[in-house]
Amino acid sequence: QEPFVADEYIERLAWRTPGGGSRGGEAFDPKRLLEEFVNHIQELQVMDERIQRKVEKLEQQCQKEAKEFAKKVQELQKSNQVAFQHFQELDEHISYVATKVCHLGDQLEGVNTPRQRAVEAQKLMKYFNEFLDGELKSDVFTNSEKIKEAADIIQKLHLIAQELPFDRFSEVKSKIASKYHDLECQLIQEFTSAQRRGEISRMREVAAVLLHFKGYSHCVDVYIKQCQEGAFLRNDVFEDAAILCQRVNKQVGEIFSNPETVLAKLIQNIFEVKLQSYVKDQLEEHRKSDAEQYLKNLYDLYTRTTNLSSKLMEFNLGTDKQTFLSKLIKAIFISYLENYIEVEIGYLKSRSAMILQRYYDSKNHQKRSIGTGGIQDLKERLRQRTNLPLGPSIDTHGETFLSQEVVVNLLQETKQAFERCHRLSDPSDLPKNAFRIFSMLVEFLCTEHIDYALETGLAGIPSSDSKNANLYFLDVVHQANTIFHLFDKQFNDHLMPLISSSPKLSECLQKKKDIIEQMEVKLDMGIDRTLNCMIGQMKHILAAEQKKTDFKPEDENNVLIQYTNACVKVCGYVRKQVEKIRNSMDGKNVDTVLMEFGVRFHRLIYEHLQQYSYSCMGGMLAICDVAEYRKCAKDFKIALVLQLFDTLHALCNLLVVAPDNLKQVCSGEQLANLDKNILHSFVQLRVDYRSARLARHFS
Asked: Which of 513, 523, 631, 503 is nearest to 572 (CA)?
């Protein structure tokens, strides 16, 4: 049996044999196992011979049956050939008969067609005679149930009457026309009744009859009118219109032979009557009184109309449905879109001015006139070259005159204006209109708000020699930086998509670049003057707190302080300003300003130390002060600043080093590259400089 594995078979045989399953044990009997294997091999050989004889018998039987089957297949093939031959003969006979039948049919049709025409003409002549006699006796005209047949006859008679001369047949032509009109009215009435009853099949029959009448278009008008009865009951006329068109689209193909024309006419009627009236009512109410509501309504109505148009694009309305729907939309909104941008700019201007004025009023602030041209331009150029405050300093009481709420409001108004511009502007005018809106944003956000705040902030920076001056310009810098990030985001998110493929792109980028450069000039100027004020404050601290006796104490052996009071106060002030600079700026600007502040801080301390004479203990105290200044300089995290204070600390060592070691210290790593005059100037500050021994060692 399959699957057969010889090893497993031998193993099972060994286990079944007594004494053959325990290898090497006491019960193991190899002779008995050998005897069992020999007997089993003999049984298998006998079984193999028996099976082999059975196989040979089956093979002989199979060969015999194969020969019989092949003989039978040959007989069937011969029978099939005979049947196929008979089929071909039958097919030829059928074709021959069919040809005869077609020929006979053509002959019959050639005889029957003229006969039918003659019968039709005879009937028409009979009906024409009734009109000629002035009395309609035929059942087709008197029986109301045969209106379909009567319509077919009167339509043909009407066509014939058109060809007859008027002078001889005026009366009969008039009667036929009257009957034509009466039947037409009856059919339209029948169509109307069927529509009210909802009988689609009857409507289809009547419409098919009316198709050849002049009043077919009136039938379509009736259908369109009745479709709209009760369809516009909700407040949402656009949703009602979409539902109506979907319902009619499913139905119109079952009634009319030209459904796309009927559906297009329905849509045209909805746009020209319902939508146009609705749009006019919504817009005219606010057109002159409320520009904000007018623009919102215009954007909303135009959007909803175009969305409805997109839904209607799914229906079959003929060949160029895109152009058809676009013309309908244009007809509704053309009078409003022609001057849209003027209304938009006017509203944006008044709204932006109101937002700014409301903010300044809340601060009880009367805006100063910055002015342009003449003396103002001259002052501006002088200020940029000299960095000096021109005119009196203004106390802003810590107010930056910048408001993120105002900025968000201005940007929100402009964002909505960009969205309306994108939707309502003609594609050819879109870049130009978007640029005008951007110009409004630049005028009110950048010029009237940010630039004004920078000018006010500059005017509020005190002079560098002022005492206890409050410095708020860095707050202006921080807020202006945040605001400009918001301005730049709106430029990229909302303006760029509208102008990216037009010549206005370069114009907008240039305008933005100019605005940035103007602001950067004023920010740089304000930061520079603020740093000058910081240094001025530090000068006042040093002048007030530093005493000459600090570095030349009367009792050299009784100095108890680690560093001077002036140093403590200056370091405290510097740390506060460093933190303020970090909080007010971002990116590389932080390092740039801190480096400039650090360099000026170093210069101040360097020049300050040059003003005193130092005893040995005073020099040690100066070294302690500089070490504290250097610790403060580490807060800057600027390598150059730290290097400057390291060098200054090394220079201060010259104040205390023994005269014999001066040359060795001056040639050290930190002082070797310094100018000899600088080294000499520090050595001269020692009180023992004039001693012959010190002068001799240094020379």
From this structure: 631
Residues contacting 495, CB < 8 A, separation 6+: 418, 434, 438, 508
State whether residue 686 is helix, strand or coil. Answer: strand
Same domain, 119 and 212: no
Q: Which two tokens stand for residue 424?
A: 């309502």
In a domain, 364, yes or no: no
**462: number of Cβ within 10 Å:** 21
Number of domains in the chain: 4
Inter-residue long-range contacts of 10-15, CB under 8 Å, 24+ positions, other chains counted: 13/37, 13/40
- Which residue, among 571, 638, 627, has the nearest Cα to 598 in the 3D structure? 638
Selection from 633, 579, 580 nearest residue 606 by Cα: 633
Rounded CA gap, 588 and 594, in Å?
A: 10
| Separation of alpha carbons 429 and 345, rounded Å | 14
Cβ atoms of residues 192 and 222 within 8 Å: yes
Mean pLDDT of 342-367: 92
Spatial separation of the C-alpha atoms in residues 262 and 223, rounded to whole Å: 9
User: What letter does residue 450 receive in the DSSP assignment?
Assistant: I
Range of the domain at 50: 6-19+28-131
| Residue the block writes with tokens 């920010």 | 523
Q: For residue 145, tell me if it sits in a domain.
A: yes
pLDDT in tens, 195-252: 888 888 888 887 877 776 776 788 888 888 888 887 787 778 888 898 888 888 888 8
Using an 8 Å Cβ cutoff, are 279 and 332 in contact? yes
DSSP 268-328: HHIIIIIIHHHHHHHHHTTTTT-HHHHHHHHHHHHHHHHHHHHHHTTS---S-HHHHHHHH
Between the alpha carbon of residue 226 and those of residues 36, 159, 188, 221, 229, the distances in Å are 107, 31, 13, 9, 5
Q: Crossing angle, helix 504-545 and helix 565-584, to 10 degrees? A: 170
Of the candidates 234, 258, 240, which has an alpha carbon nearest to the alpha carbon of residue 311? 240
Residues 122 and 226 in one domain: no
Is residue 384, in this structure, part of any structural domain at all? no
Q: Which residues are bridge partners to 686 per DSSP?
A: 614
Percent of the residues in the chain that have a pLDDT greater than 70, as a whole number: 81
Measured between alpha carbons, how far is residue 652 from residues 136, 670, 671 in Å?
A: 137, 12, 11
Please state which of the ranges 341-345, 365-369, 633-637 shows the lowest mean pLDDT. 365-369
**pLDDT by residue (tens digit) across 276-319?**
999 999 898 888 889 999 999 999 999 999 999 998 888 888 77
Distance CA 271, CA 286 (A): 22
pLDDT at 375: 44
DSSP label at residue 367: P
Per-residue pLDDT reduced to its tens digit, 615-657 = 888 888 999 999 999 999 999 999 999 999 999 998 888 888 8
Q: Are residues 643 and 573 in the same domain?
A: yes
Domain assignment of residue 198, yes or no:
yes
pTM: 0.69
HEC readout, 609-640: HCCCCECHHHHHHHHHHHHHHHHHHHCCCCHH
Characterise 615 by phi-psi region: left (phi > 0), alpha (psi -120 to 50), beta (else).
beta
- The pLDDT mean for the chain works out to 83
β-strand partners of 614 = 686
